[in-house]
Amino acid sequence: MKENKHNMIIKNIFFDFDGVIAESVAAKTEAFREMYMPYGEEIANKVVEYHMKHGGVSRYEKFRYWEKKFFGKNISNERTQELAQEFSELVLKKVIYANEVSGVKAFLEKYYKRLNFWIITGTPTTEIEIIARERGLTSYFLGIHGSPERKRYWTEYLIENYNLKREETFFLGDATTDQDAASFSKLHFALKENEENKCIFEDYKGIRFKDFETLEKQLKEYFVKRK
């Protein structure tokens, strides 16, 4: 990753998980649809539409929003946890066995001893730890962090606790919450493109990648340009 001492240097990368490490966005979309289909196709479609526009928002926030929006309910924390548990049971195995984003394992293997890697995701921390372990990913990351804390919380927490330089840190994401966290913490951002986020990021002018072979080239070119 280092071009020469006169270029900016990447030292730290924050990875979103769904859609960035694993091709698991569709699995979660279908699980949300399945949960709300008993209330009719119209509501299920609106749930899916909201989920796709707010991909990195935690499931807890989504359930609170939907229950208020569609049923006029201000649900308790206990009920929110029940819905989240139901969702987790539907989706966990699907995510564990989802295909990897092309090239990610090779990228992690190549760079994890030279760079600092963390996962920051909207998935609950306890769940993403299980997923990462089952997928054989844990050893590549210094930490794996999820909800209920938001991504902004984790970017600032890691910067402070590891004394990271913002200009040496990238956030790889596929959702507006990833871009928001990167912007909030003044980090570089790279967008993992997919069919679901094509319209949302139509005007985005920064780094884009569909696989990690492309990302590696993009990052090298980016830092060469910024001598």
From TrEMBL:
Pathway this chain belongs to? Organic acid metabolism; glycolate biosynthesis; glycolate from 2-phosphoglycolate: step 1/1
Q: Which reaction does it catalyse?
A: 2-phosphoglycolate + H2O = glycolate + phosphate
Q: What is its EC number?
A: 3.1.3.18
GO MF entry, a single one: hydrolase activity
Protein's UniProt keywords contain Hydrolase: yes
Q: Which domain of life is it from?
A: Bacteria
The record's InterPro entries line, in alphabetical order, gives: HAD-like_hydrolase_sf, HAD-like_sf, HAD_2, HAD_sf, PGP-like_dom2
Keywords attached to this entry: Hydrolase
Q: Hey, which family's this protein in?
A: Belongs to the HAD-like hydrolase superfamily. CbbY/CbbZ/Gph/YieH family.
According to UniProt, the name of this protein is phosphoglycolate phosphatase
What's the source species for this entry?
Answer: Aquimarina hainanensis
